[in-house]
Amino acid sequence: MTASSSSSSSPSTQPESAPDPAAQWSSARRLHPIYVELAREFVIDAPPCAALEAPVDAPDREAVEHAQKWLQDLDDRIQVHQLRQFLQTSSLVDNDGLIVLMQHFLAKTARTDSLRDKIDFLLVQYFSQGAPTELDDNAADLTYVAAGLEPVLGKVELKPPVWLNALDRVLDSARRCRSLDELLHGGVLEQGRKAKAQAGDLFYLPIALVAFTRFGYLMRRVFFRLMLTDLNNLLDGLTELEEKGVETIDCRRAQFSAQEPIVRLRMICQSWKVMFQAEYSSGQPLRMLVDLRASVDAALGRGAGADCGEKAAEATAAAKAAPQETVEGTTAEGKTAQAKTAPKAAAAAAAGTSAKTSDAGKSSAKPQAGFDVTNDDAPEFEVSAAAPEWHADEDSQPRKKK
């Protein structure tokens, strides 16, 4: 990839012009209640902006500047993972609100990695919410995505530069993955992040914004397919173990016990089906899902996990002693700290799933609050309420082997 990272020669998404105070004020008033709620939810010490709370339609210059400083302060303090969780669990922001947020961020001239990731997420979220469930991957080409983003970006000239071809190569690699573990740890996500980082300010070209939105949307679909496949395979494995008379298995690698009851694991998996359908989530639950599947495979004596069952405790101890970068950008120490609450979170999920509601797809159960992953720094994958591949009532019961 040869995209330049120099900001001095990179074109902007719109011609530079003096900001319109009236437009700034209108945008700030739309954003104010959103930011106030964001600050409240994530316990950010930032009282509401007095100027924006006043019912003033034509403020003076000082009020406009005060409002802009207030917004900038919160922009600096709100992290992208917080924005993700808030927008995917709150009904406060509709499509028009998303557009205002995107235009607010796109108008900024000081471009940081955080700003880029926020814009990237917002564009993918906006397009995903408007895309039909039955949309075929092949139909989601640049023309289609550009049309979906037109309310935000206007008409975009669809002549992608050669360096954007790297995104299709990453998508091809993702589609060849056969499990969530392979996607999360096979280097594919790192390739996507690298493509975004190497774009530099060229990321903000309208055609690049369209291309990266398409890339993020299609990667989400790959992610959901693999996640659903892993959950169903995990449930199938638990059924197979039960048929063999096995009642407990060693799940220490997933931060559970050495004799974890299969009945409890099944309830946890059913709770995850509900949680992954409706609530923002990444990081810890996904790692637990991958590790639980490996534990079940090990108990069945198959897969890569079969050689590691007896070494799970040693591996966990080694992770505590030797912090290192993971594919999601967190350290092994951070993962270990999260893992301390993992069994309690899973227990909360299991406790909230009764035998009467084991059919997660037909149950009205809400995602369990025990799964708190708001401190994740993973920039790529999250579960959107608008996930195009999810059918909660499909295959929600463990499938019997014939």
Detailed description of the structure:
This protein is an all-alpha fold and 402 residues long. It has a domain at 224-357. It has 17 helices and two strands. It has a two-stranded antiparallel sheet.
Q: Summarize model confidence as the mean pLDDT.
A: 75
Which class best fits the helix and strand makeup?
Answer: mainly alpha
Largest sheet: 2 strands, antiparallel
What is the radius of gyration? 23 Å
Categorize the overall geometry.
globular
The count of helical stretches stands at: 17
List the helices and strands in order: HHHHHHHHHHHHEEHHHHH
Distance between the termini: 49 Å
The proportion of strand residues reads under 5%
| Widest sheet: strand ordering | 1-2
Work out the number of β strands: 2
**Percentage of residues assigned to helices:** 40-55%
Low-confidence stretches: 4-15, 278-282, 305-402
What descriptors fit this protein?
402 residues; mainly alpha; two-stranded antiparallel ribbon; 17 helices; 2 strands; 1% strand; globular; disordered C terminus
